[in-house]
Write a structure and sequence with these properties.
The two termini are 39 Å apart. The protein is built from twelve helices and ten strands. It is of the alpha+beta class. Strand 6 and strand 7 form a beta hairpin. Helix 6 packs across helix 7. It folds into two domains: 127 residues, 2-Layer Sandwich (Phosphorylase Kinase, domain 1), CATH 3.30.200; 104 residues, no CATH class. The strands form three sheets. A five-stranded antiparallel beta sheet has the order 3-4-5-7-6, with helices on both faces. Strands 8-9-10 form a three-stranded antiparallel beta sheet, covered by helices on one side. It has a two-stranded antiparallel sheet with strand order 1-2.
Length: 258
């Protein structure tokens, strides 16, 4: 299959992503792309939406959720449909539509997912303009699983109970020479004794099989620090083992200075 995942997929390839996707694709190829369609939102207000949002709405696909830019619909037990449109920000829907397509395109980085399959979700077909993409379904991550999956987070949380997963992860996936800069940014050097600083550094050296992949991917693909919130991670089953992966990296956005 070519790298653009042409919409005219073979029947076997359509079926691989489930009947719902096959039906979505058939309708998508029949209806006009540049037309607006009317629906009623959750409070029964009439809304004009693009075709990409209209089809899953009319198919009664389970609505999983949305941010300001994109909406997610359930396809089957393995896949979801990410649509570059959201009703959550009614004043900027159409401005956000363009940005959301760019977000889909950046997230659908074939090189990134091929090179680091253990830390990013899998992806299926996508629209030629990235107005929708098919992505691997993941279970939302949580603090309890994060502490089990990253022993270093468990230890840091015991030392500094107020530590969030995001603060831990920003430190954990950095090379050793950048940790001092980040500790200063978090004001830990001002609030802590040197003995505690040394203990933090020791904890951050606790190994994890995915650590180097994260370090390399963050540098290589310009992934932003503010994406390391717990709700940007998900849990998947790979080779019989549960893995915690980054599901919504802000690729292409400006990084912090460190």
């Amino acid at each position: 299959m070519n790298n653009n995942w042409k919409l005219f997929l073979k029947e076997s390839e359509r079926n691989y992503f489930g009947n719902n996707f096959s039906n979505f694709l058939k309708i998508y190829n029949k209806l006009k792309k540049n037309k607006l369609y009317n629906i009623h939102d959750k409070v029964f207000h009439k809304q004009e939406v693009p075709l990409e949002y209209y089809i899953p709405y009319k198919m009664n696909l389970q609505y999983i959720g949305a941010g300001s830019f994109r909406s997610v619909f359930d396809l089957d037990e393995d896949w979801v449909l990410k649509v570059a449109f959201s009703l959550e920000d009614p004043f900027n829907q159409w401005e956000n539509f363009k940005r959301a397509r760019k977000m889909n395109e950046e997230e659908y980085n074939v090189e990134m997912h091929t090179k680091y399959p253990n830390i990013f979700p899998k992806f299926g077909p996508h629209a030629s303009n990235y107005s929708w993409i098919v992505a691997e379904k993941v279970e939302p991550a949580n603090e309890l699983f994060a502490r089990q999956y990253f022993p270093a987070y468990h230890e840091l949380d015991k030392l500094i109970p107020s530590t969030t997963f995001g603060d831990f992860f920003i430190l954990y996936v950095r090379t050793e020479e950048k940790i001092d800069q980040l500790l200063r940014k978090f004001h830990l050097t001002m609030q802590s004794e040197q003995k505690e600083i040394d203990k933090i550094k020791s904890i951050l050296k606790i190994p994890h099989p995915d650590k180097n992949d994260y370090i390399n991917a963050i540098e290589e693909f310009n992934i932003t620090n503010w994406d390391f919130k717990i709700n940007n991670f998900g849990i998947v089953n790979r080779d019989g083992k549960k893995r915690m992966i980054l599901i919504d990296p802000g690729i292409g956005l400006r990084k912090w200075t460190v």
